Amino acid sequence: MIIGIGNDTESISRIHGAIERRDNFLTFILTPNELAAASKRKGKHYTEFIAGRFSAKEAFAKATGYGIGNKVHWHDIEILNEDNGRPIMRVKDFPYTTHVAITHSGDYVNTMVVIEKLSLWHSIMHYLFKKREV
Question: GO terms for molecular function, please (predicted)?
Answer without folding.
Answer: holo-[acyl-carrier-protein] synthase activity; magnesium ion binding
